[in-house]
TrEMBL record:
Gene3D superfamilies: 3.40.1190.20. Its EC number is 2.7.1.15. The gene is rbsK. The lineage of its organism: Bacteria, Pseudomonadati, Pseudomonadota, Alphaproteobacteria, Acetobacterales. This is Ribokinase. It comes from the Bacteria. It comes from Nguyenibacter vanlangensis. It holds the Pfam family PfkB.
């Protein structure tokens, strides 16, 4: 049972040749309304891979909540634990993408930022000890920590995406409660002071993450690859795959990096749920992330299982 606890946004995306600078007004080549928010994106990424998934989170009671609920249903995500909060605004993300696939994003968190203990209770209602729970940091930190405590107390697997890193960083408790964290380059630098750019710097960053109490770390290096590290296994037996390793990037034509990390995390959860070891799951996830960059949009960019399997076999 895969469960996502996190944000739901509506993405208003403008496609431009170049990103605007302050004071500049540009005409977009095109615009698009889509489902986004790291919580919704990760839930859709799981569903597109064919696994059942429940999204626990919050929307407002505006027209965008209906759009989001329709989109989630179309993608096959259960919205039975999604709360429509009265008098709140559904999260909105205003995104500009340029011809090189780079982007700027402004998020108005809305209902996501009003999440509280009642949302944690809704999450707890759908957790079991064999749940794999996906969380991100687009909701209030105290709510995230309360949810992480519930998941950890049950013995569930918690994949925490420290994205975006909260302004004051993350407390050591978050590192201890998470089974696994998946920071990208900038998040890794924020959390450890080490900017990972190759396998060696990624290994040093992973050690810094372990030293704060994190059991398993996956350091995402964007187009440069991924480093995984499991601190719970001091032995060097190959029984459960290698303890540490570097996964080289899949070669794809990237046009839009939005939600690559979310598709990575959704893929990671699906692979772990299928019993893959950390090395195999990281490789599967990297294929999902790579494929997501070949398509525009957030939820709309999530690859299917057939697409991932054909890239893995190539
Ligand atoms: P985030 O979206 O969180 O910033 P990344 O940019 O690191 O995360 O992307 C997540 C993952 O997607 C990467 O670790 C990698 O596996 C894959 N990926 C992203 N960009 C590319 C790319 N240009 N080529 C191949 N794989 C990519």
């Amino acid at each position: 049972p895969l469960v996502v606890f996190g944000s739901v946004n509506i993405d208003m995306v403008a496609r431009l040749h170049t990103l605007p600078v302050p004071g500049e007004t540009l005409h977009a080549q095109g615009a698009h309304l889509g489902l986004g928010g790291k919580g919704a994106n990760q839930a859709v990424a799981v569903a597109r891979l064919g696994a059942p998934v429940t999204l626990a989170g919050r929307m407002g009671d505006d027209m965008f909540a209906g759009f989001a609920a329709d989109a989630l249903r179309r993608f096959g995500v259960s919205d039975s634990h999604l709360f429509r909060a009265p008098a709140q605004m559904t999260g909105l993300a205003m995104i500009c993408t340029d011809a090189a696939g780079e982007n700027t994003i402004v998020v108005a968190g809305g209902a996501n930022l009003a999440m509280d203990d009642t949302d944690v209770a809704r999450l707890a209602a759908c957790l079991t000890p064999d749940s794999i729970v996906l969380m991100q940091c687009e909701i209030p930190l105290p709510v995230l920590l309360a949810a992480a405590r519930r998941a950890a107390a049950l013995g569930a697997t918690l994949i925490l995406d420290p994205a975006p890193v909260p302004p004051g960083g993350l407390p050591d408790e978050a590192f201890r409660l998470a089974t696994l964290m998946t920071p990208n380059e900038t998040e890794t630098e924020r959390l450890t002071g080490i900017r990972p750019h190759d396998p060696d710097s990624a290994r040093r960053a992973a050690h810094a993450l372990h030293s704060r109490g994190l059991r398993q770390a996956i350091v995402k290096l964007g187009a440069q690859g991924v480093f995984f590290s499991d601190d719970t296994r001091q032995d060097d037996t190959r029984q459960n795959g290698p303890r540490q390793g570097f996964v080289r990037p899949f070669r794809v034509t990237a046009i839009d990096s939005v939600a690559a990390g979310d598709c990575f995390n959704g893929g990671l959860a699906v692979a772990l749920a299928r019993g893959q070891d950390l090395a195999a799951a990281t490789r599967f996830a990297a294929a999902c992330g790579a494929l997501a960059t070949t398509r525009k949009g957030a939820s709309d960019a999530a690859p299917t299982l057939a697409e991932v399997e054909s890239l893995l076999a190539a």
